[in-house]
């Protein structure tokens, strides 16, 4: 048997074996153009444009795992091609379609980090912003993201900060900064929320979010003073903040809410002063009690605490100054 016959038998055996192996691409084939044995599973098209188009076909067919495999081939074979940035972006889109938002954000961010001159930057920022909002609104079911919230780093904040870092003065930056404050406020972290709202006001004073940020600063102070307390500094700061808001934005829809908040907080201040008076009364320090009862009557007229203080003043021993 000569060498040509042996080669034909060998090739025939390979073909027959491949046909019996089941899944496509599980065999190697001879390509005369390259003069090599090639496994289609690992092969790449002759140009980045062809490879991108081939991968897009899988994406359009909603075969996202296969699409990502082909996009990654492009990145490996043609890392400096113009199509590389789009392939990387489409990997993010694939993860997002699979509702794997953590991987999606990582893939999107690589577009900005590896291809800073790509025109896909605005699209990346938009997708990151959308995902952060989904997470913040509780519409994301990704278990990895849910688990990340249990840690010390808040994923929603991290993503919003990426949006801001990627384009500090872009379309989504002011709202991202503002929503970081809302996120902390919803978690009951009012000092952190206040700091973020102040940053919104300072960094984006001319944005539509500045007005709301000013209101939210006062609201954060108000929420910090939920319980009646002897230290009224925070309550007083909140009242001042709301009053300043009403003066600065008299036509705002939030002004009515601000006025209502002032009323509630002034009632709280009256209660605080009344409690101080009660403390002195119970300890028979009538002079100090009289001072605070009088303060409540004169400064917080119309509140229930003013009525109670007025009644208490009549019971203070005669001669108390």
Describe this structure in words.
The structure is a single chain. This protein is mostly helical and 321 residues long. Among the domains are: 1-43, no CATH class; 44-167, Alpha Horseshoe (Serine Threonine Protein Phosphatase 5, Tetratricopeptide repeat), CATH 1.25.40.10. It is 69% helix and 2% strand. It has a two-stranded antiparallel ribbon with strand order 1-2. Helix 5 packs antiparallel against helix 6 (121-136) and helix 8 runs antiparallel to helix 9. The radius of gyration is 34 Å and the shape is rod-shaped. The N and C termini lie far apart (128 Å). The relative contact order is 0.04. Residues 21-26 and 142-153 have low confidence and may be disordered.
Name of the level-1 CATH class of one domain: Mainly Alpha
What is the H-and-E element order? HEEHHHHHHHHHHHHHH
- The mean pLDDT is 85
Radius of gyration, whole Å:
34 Å
Low-confidence stretches: 21-26, 142-153
CATH overall fold name of one domain: Serine Threonine Protein Phosphatase 5, Tetratricopeptide repeat
Q: What is the straight-line distance between the termini?
A: 128 Å
Q: Into which percent range does the helicity of residues fall?
A: 55-70%
Structural class: mainly alpha
Q: What characteristic shape results from the CA principal axes?
A: rod-shaped
Number of E strands: 2
Helical stretch count? 15
The major sheet is characterized as: 2 strands, antiparallel
Assigned CATH architecture of one domain: Alpha Horseshoe
Strand order of the largest sheet: 1-2
The CATH homologous superfamily of one domain corresponds to Tetratricopeptide repeat domain
Measured by DSSP, the beta-strand proportion falls in: under 5%
């Amino acid at each position: 048997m000569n060498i040509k016959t042996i080669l034909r038998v060998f090739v025939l055996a390979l073909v027959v074996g491949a046909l019996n192996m089941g899944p496509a691409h599980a065999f190697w084939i001879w390509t005369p153009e390259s003069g090599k044995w090639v496994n289609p599973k690992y092969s790449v098209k002759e140009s980045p444009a062809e490879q991108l188009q081939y991968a897009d076909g899988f994406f359009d067919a909603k075969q996202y795992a296969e699409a990502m495999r082909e996009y990654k081939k492009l990145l490996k074979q043609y890392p400096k091609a113009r199509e590389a940035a789009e392939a990387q972006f489409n990997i993010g889109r694939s993860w997002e379609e699979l509702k794997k938002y953590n991987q999606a954000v990582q893939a999107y961010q690589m577009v900005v980090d590896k291809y800073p001159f790509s025109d896909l930057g605005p699209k990346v920022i938009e997708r990151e912003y959308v995902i952060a909002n989904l997470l913040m609104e509780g519409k994301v079911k990704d278990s990895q993201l849910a688990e990340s919230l249990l840690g010390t780093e808040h994923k929603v904040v991290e993503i919003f900060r990426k949006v801001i870092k990627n384009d500090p003065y872009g379309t989504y930056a002011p709202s991202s900064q503002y929503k970081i404050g809302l996120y902390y406020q919803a978690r009951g972290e009012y000092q952190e929320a206040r700091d973020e709202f102040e940053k919104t006001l300072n960094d984006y004073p001319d944005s539509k979010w500045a007005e709301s940020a000013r209101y939210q600063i006062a609201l954060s102070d108000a929420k910090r003073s939920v319980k009646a307390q002897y230290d009224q500094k925070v309550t007083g700061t909140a009242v001042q903040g709301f009053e300043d808001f009403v003066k600065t934005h008299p036509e705002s829809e939030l002004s009515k809410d601000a006025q209502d908040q002032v009323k509630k907080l002034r009632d709280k201040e009256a209660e605080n002063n009344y409690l101080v008076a009660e403390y002195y009364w119970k300890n028979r320090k009538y002079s100090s009690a009289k001072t605070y009862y009088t303060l409540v009557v004169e400064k917080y007229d119309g509140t229930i605490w003013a009525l109670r203080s007025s009644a208490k003043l009549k019971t203070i021993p005669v001669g108390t100054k």
